[in-house]
Amino acid sequence: MKRVLLAGASGYLGRAMLAELKTRGYWVRVLVRTEQQQQALSQIADDTFLGQATDIDTLSGLMDGIDLVFTSIGITRQKDGLTYESVDYGANLNLLTLAENSKVEKFIYVSVFNADKLPGIKIIQAKEKFVARLKSSWLPYCVIRPSGFFADMKEFLVMAKSGRVYLLGNGQLRFNPISGADLAKVCCDMFQSEQTEVDVGGPEVYSHDQIAELAFKALGEPVKMTHFPLWLVGALVSVMRWLSPVSVYGPVEFFAKAMSVDMQAPCYGEESLESFFVHLANIDNRAS
Ligand SMILES: NC(=O)c1ccc[n+]([C@@H]2O[C@H](COP(=O)([O-])OP(=O)(O)OC[C@H]3O[C@@H](n4cnc5c(N)ncnc54)[C@H](OP(=O)(O)O)[C@@H]3O)[C@@H](O)[C@H]2O)c1
């Protein structure tokens, strides 16, 4: 069975990827950056490697015996004072450089759907800079382009719980987010596929209004929504760009812009967003 290096295993998609790879019988080494993560993941992974993806000098031996690489390393929400350039681009570039100098057969990377329709956004610029470098590599590769993750839909539930959901635009834009487990299945399939780029959405397409309605339904609360015009959101993001550091405006800019275009990607998977919301609402109920 092939030996996989999984980078990003502590994240939402990475955790699902680890479970899927093990279900399919792969031998898996995970790259982690803290001893705590190493301890937690050593229960599931076959091997753990402690190193800083942003510092290539700490990664010696990482690719030894590895056939396939999957990386979902990235900072969706900024932390640690690092930049998109040093993580989304730099850390993944370190992995690619090491892979190119070893016997790796395929490199899979996760960027975003509709990147070409979202120009000028810092996080996407860093990701697509890496994609360009990956495409120029002699290594066989695949770029996964998900529309959005269930994990990020939690924000709808949080707002619904507080009594009102605030939406950008008229609420009619289309979106099909996907669960980590469903996306992990597509990612694993790509190890055997000839496809070099794949757009991936979840099985159900919703308008933003419908997602908000599902969140209220899961909580058993009446629907209350407020829509902000897109021009106002655009103006606010522009002001934030001037007044705040990238660690503050970066995530706001990404989510605001992504929510201002249709994000309907080809449908995959079977897990429903409604069940995800109901599951979270039940956890909340039990906790309170
Ligand atoms: N969320 C979405 O809707 C969406 C949509 C399309 C694409 N994507 C992209 O898909 C990828 C995976 O998303 P996700 O939701 O799984 O993200 P996540 O839960 O935030 O996980 C990100 C992973 O990157 C690692 N990472 C972050 N900074 C690092 C650093 N400086 N050095 C080493 N590792 C670092 C994290 O490790 P630690 O746990 O150690 O921080 C974690 O394992 C991301 O690149 C994201 O941009 C996301």
UniProtKB/TrEMBL annotation:
InterPro entries: HCF244-like (IPR044256), NAD(P)-bd_dom (IPR016040), NAD(P)-bd_dom_sf (IPR036291)
Biological process per Gene Ontology, one example term: photosynthesis
Signal sequence region: none
Name of this protein: Putative nucleoside-diphosphate-sugar epimerase
GO terms under cellular component: photosystem II
Keywords: Photosynthesis, Photosystem II
Domain NAD(P)-binding: 8-192
Domain of life: Bacteria
Database matches in PANTHER family: PROTEIN HIGH CHLOROPHYLL FLUORESCENCE PHENOTYPE 244, CHLOROPLASTIC (PTHR47128:SF2), PTHR47128
Organism annotation: Gynuella sunshinyii YC6258
